[in-house]
Amino acid sequence: MSDELMVAPSFTVCGAGLAGTLAALYLARQGNRVTLYERLPDMRTHSVPRGRSINLALSRRGLHALEALGLAPVIHPLTIPMRGRMIHSLQGELTFQPYGRTPEETIFSISRHQLNCALLDAAAHWPNLEIHFQSRCVGLNLSSMTLEIEDTRTRTVRQVSARTVVGADGAFSAIRQALQRTDRYDYAQTFLPHGYKELTIPALPGGQHALEKNYLHIWPRQDFMLIALPNLDGSFTCTLFLAYEGAESFASLTDEDAIRRFFDRHFPDVTPLMPTLVEDFQHNPTGSMVTIRCFPWQYAGRVVLIGDAAHAVVPFYGQGMNASFEDCFVLDECLRRHNGDTSAAFLDYQQQRKVNTDALAELAYENYLEMRAKVASPWFLMRRRLEYALSNLLGDRFLPLYTMVSFTRIPYAEARARAARQDRWLDAALATLALLVLLALLWWLWPAGR
Question: Where do transmembrane segments lie in this chain (predicted)?
């Protein structure tokens, strides 16, 4: 064994985003020597390029992973509770759809930047955790366990030995690409035909929110939608989800007049609240949305994938970050259960998480269809009220799908299967009720029956 490898850290984490930093914290808490590489400058002291969504929804799974590290007191002040969806119709009518069965069942809006900074601050307190910024993982030699680290300022690449690598470097992970070159590696990526663009509703002159702050606001318009999440400074971060191509698409909104006509036609109640609408639309990037499935997530007990590197999902269930944080918690549990035996721990982690993140990918896509079209349907609203009524009556014996996903730690696959069974029971009950009503009506109308 080389002298360089002898002094290599116990774990090398590639990517100091949300999942990578939390994973590094868990590994450091176990007493491991951890090195964390991040391609961007330190976001606590430098402005970073605007890329992925800057607002996130934190729910039970993510909170649990933070609480296990004692981080809840630091994170909670950065959040705004959201009790449900506020649906805005084209006519300006508002419809409230609660998220949970009780007021305590809420999700929390939080800034990606503020959350990441808080995690980096926590990491700075661990003497056995070293962070290298502006250092991008561009490759991994699996046979020698040598990482290629690029200095993003000089574009020079150096070789770094590693014992165990955690790939937390996002949907287009360089670490996963190394695994993809191994024999019989499964990989698939699917992009949505829709993209997203972030816009802003600024705070009112007094610093108040222009809309009620304790809701996720949604403007569903069948083939596209606008959503808005509250920020602590009184502003809202809005996201327009729209097709890339077509009559009404990002491709068709190429000038100021087209942008204003589109928003005045489809979102007339919100346009007056967005003084920088055109500037935001023209200058903010259009983001793509991808689902990634791959297998295996680990290699020989020496490499493991977490977060988007393993299972990128579209954002419509608000579970991408929560699932990634749950990865970190489960990986920590597996390493403890197997006394640091990474081969056994990584296989255990993979077995637990793969089936559940595959289920989440399906749930997220289904919610994509629901949010843009179904939430405004009277039938959808009636069924949702019936589900919550049954849940209040039957307790934990009947839990709505959203409740299981967002307010419990029931595995995603189990929640999806259980919800499918409940849907079949509910469909059968509604069909029986409809038949009884029809028979009663026929009996009442039929002369011989009176």
Answer: 6-28, 425-446
* Residues 176-235 pLDDT 10s: 999 999 999 999 999 999 999 999 999 999 999 999 999 999 999 989 999 999 999 999
C-alpha distances (whole Å) from 246 to each of 196, 214, 242, 255, 373 are: 15, 34, 10, 16, 18
Q: Which residues does residue 136 pair with via DSSP β-bridges, in sequence order? A: 150
Q: What is the pLDDT of residue 1?
A: 36
Instruction: Phi first, then psi: give them for residue 112, nearest 5 degrees.
Output: -55, -45
Q: Give the right CATH number for 3-79+112-188+293-368 from 3.50.50.60, 3.30.2320.30, 3.40.50.2020, 3.40.50.1370.
A: 3.50.50.60
Q: How far apart are CA 277 and CA 90, in angstroms?
A: 19
Find all residues with CB under 8 Å of 179, minimum gap 6, and list them.
Answer: 142, 167, 185, 294, 296, 299, 303, 305
**Taking the complete model, does pTM exceed 0.85, yes or no?**
yes
**Nearest by Cα to 313 from 365, 257, 351, 276:** 365
* Gap between the Cα atoms of 409 and 59, Å rounded: 10
Q: What strand order describes the sheet that includes 298-299?
A: 129-132, 34-37, 11-14, 165-167, 303-305, 298-299
Nearest-10 Cα torsion for 69, 70, 71, 77: 160
Cα–Cα–Cα angle for 358, 362, 368, nearest 5°? 140
What are the sequence ranges of the domains in the chain?
Answer: 3-79+112-188+293-368, 190-288, 377-445
Q: Could you tell me which residues are beta bridge partners of residue 198?
A: 239
* Average pLDDT value over all residues in the chain: 92
Its CATH class, for the domain covering 190-288, is: alpha beta
Structure tokens at 399: 């839990």
**Nearest 5°: CA angle at 304, between 301 and 309?**
165
Sheet bearing 146-151, strands edge to edge: 135-141, 146-151, 157-161
Q: Could you say which residues of the chain have pLDDT below 50?
A: 1-6, 449
